[in-house]
Amino acid sequence: MQTRSQQQRRQDRDAQVAARGADGVVLSVRGLSVEYRARRGGVKAVRNVDFDLYKGESLALIGESGCGKTTLATALVRLLVRMATISEGEVLYHRDGKTVDVLALNEGGMRHFRWKECAMVFQGALNAFNPVLTIARQFQDTAQAHGLDDKAEIDRRSRDLLRKVQLDPDRVLPSYPFELSGGMRQRVLMALALLLEPQIIILDEPTTALDILTQRNIIDMLNGLRKELGFTLLFVSHDLAMAAELADRVATMYAGRIIELGDVYDIFNAPRHPYTYGLMKATPTLHDDASEMVSIEGSPPDLIDLPPGCKFHPRCAFMEEGKCTTEDPPLLEVGKRHTAACWFWPKVEATIEEEKAAKGVSRLNEAPAEQLQASAPQVEGRA
Ligand SMILES: Nc1ncnc2c1ncn2[C@@H]1O[C@H](COP(=O)(O)OP(=O)(O)O)[C@@H](O)[C@H]1O
Ligand code: SF4
Ligand SMILES: [Mg+2]
Fold first, then answer.
1. pTM, to two decimals
2. Rounded CA gap, 357 and 335, in Å?
3. Which of 136, 325, 356, 358 could bridge 173 with an S-S bond, Cβ 3.0-4.6 Å?
4. Are the C-beta atoms of residues 377 and 284 closer than 8 Å to each other?
C-alpha cells in the first residue's frame, strides 16, 4: 500500500512531468568525467555521467562515501580543487529558451552563473562562515560580490529570506556565526544561497553535522521553501531517509557513475540495480527488526585501478561470469522514467518480488519511505 503522502507525491511528480514540455530541463549533463591527479595515477572520481535536471524537481544523489557525489556536484559549478580536471563531457544550462555551455564560460560568466543561476552550499560549509563578520555583513558581501550594491535592497532581501527560513532577522543579522547554533547556521546558509534568486540550488550533505531533531526541521524547511519558491534542488546525501523525504527522483552513484536513476518511490520500493537494492536492505526502518538488516559485503573499488566489466561485480550476488566481468553495462530502461546499469536487472526484480511474497507485503520496505529511521541509515563508512 502506498501512503497518502506517497500517492500525493507520485501524482505531483506525474503532473510535473506532464507540465515539463520540451523546455522542462534546466541542466543537462552529458558524458561528464572528472579525474584527480594522484601520485599512484589518475583517480577516476566521476565517470561518464549523464543526467537531466528538470525545472522545479528535487534530485538526490546517493551512494557510499567516496563514490564521487561531491566531485560531481562541485564540477557542475566548476569549483573543483586544482588537482582535479574535467576530462570529458558537457554541462548545459537552460533558461528562458537560451542555452549556456557552462564548461566554456569565462571567469566573468562563471561568477554570474554561480549564485545568480546556480548556488551551491558545500559539504562542511557550516564552519565556513567568516568568524569575525556579522551575518548582516556576510549577506552584504555576498550580494556586492555579485553586483547588488543597494544596501537597503540587500537588507530587505536578507530579512525576507531569513523569515522564510524561520529565523528572526533582528536576532540573526547582528550576530556573529559562533553565536548561532548549527541548525541556525544551516538556515542562514540556505538564505544566503537564495539571495540572488538562483534557478538551481545544490546542497552537499546539508544535514550531516546536525542532530536528529535539527535534521528533521531542516528537511521540513527545505520542503516548505521548495513549495513556496519553486527552485530546482540537487542534493547530495548518504542519508537515505533524507532522500526519501526530500527527493522527487533519486540517482544512485557507484564508483563514479550513476548506476540507477528513477522516481523516489521506485528507487526505494522497486530498485533494479543490485547495489541500490543492497543499500535499501542495509537501511533500517522504524518497524524492522535490526537483525534483518544486511550490509553490502566488500568495499568499493580502487578508483585508480577499476575492475573490468561491471564495477560492482566483485561485490554482486547476481554476478554472472563472462558478461558481468567483461562488459560494463550502460543505463538500461527498466521501467517508467527508471534506468539501471545492470545486465541482469530482471533477476533483481524477480528476487524482490519473491521477497515481498514471502513477507506478505507489497513493498520492499514495509514501512513507508517517510518512516525510514532518520538517525541510522548512514551509508557513509558502511562497506
Ligand atoms: N583532493 C583529492 N585528491 C585526490 N583524490 C580525491 C580528492 N578528493 C576526492 N578524491 C577521490 O575522489 C573520490 C570521490 O570523492 P568524493 O567526490 O568526495 O566522494 P563522496 O562525496 O561521494 O564521498 C574519492 O574516493 C577519492 O578517492
Ligand atoms: S551487471 Fe552483473 S555484476 Fe553488475 S550489477 Fe548487474 S548482475 Fe551485478
Ligand atoms: Mg561528499
1. 0.89
2. 20
3. 136
4. yes
- Given pLDDT bands bounded at 50, 70 and 90, which one contains residue 13? low
Q: Are 290 and 334 in contact (CB under 8 A)?
A: no
Would you give the distance in Å from CA 276 to the centre of its chain? 15
* Nearest ligand to residue 277 Cα: 2
Question: Ligand 1: does its nearest atom lie under 6 Å from the Cβ of 83?
Answer: yes
What's the gap in Å between 370 CA and the centre of ligand 3?
23
Q: Tens digit of pLDDT for each residue in 192-244?
A: 999 999 999 999 998 888 888 888 889 999 999 999 999 999 999 988 888 99
pLDDT at 101 over 90: yes
Compute φ and ψ for 309, nearest 5 degrees. 65, -145
CA 93 / ligand 3 centre spacing (Å): 23
- Residue 182 Cα, ligand 2 centroid: separation in angstroms? 41
pLDDT attached to residue 63: 94
Q: Could you tell which of 62, 70, 87, 202 is best to mutate to test the pocket of ligand 1, judged by most ligand atoms within 8 Å of the CB?
A: 70
CA angle 160, 161, 166 (to 5 degrees): 100
Grid cell for residue 74: 562541485
Distance in angstroms (rounded) separating the CA atoms of residues 1 and 19:
27
